[in-house]
Hints:
Layout: H1 3-14, E1 32-38, E2 42-47, H2 59-69, E3 76-81, H3 94-100
Parallel strand pairs: 2-3
Antiparallel strand pairs: 1-2
Amino acid sequence: MDNGELKEKIIERLQTIYDPEIPVNIYALGLIYEIDVLPVNNVQVVMTLTAPGCPAAQSLPVEVDQKLREIEGVNDVHVSVTWSPSWDKSMISEEGKLELGML
């Protein structure tokens, strides 16, 4: 499996993880800033949360880590949370805006 295929599988898996406060997956919400597939299929994800005080601040990054480790071919996973740039509603994808009735 090449890096492109693995990245597609990673995105598919991220689309199964939902923010507990907003009924849209974290990928469509725009909470995933970066996905890097490194040599030997190590995966680095840079993500944010909707707010610094988000109740899922402890659980969402752990859920991302665990779900990505389940993908066949993934060797290691590193998830980091950043607050820069801070998330806002403009980062929600068209799909997410449709789900939220924002379009």
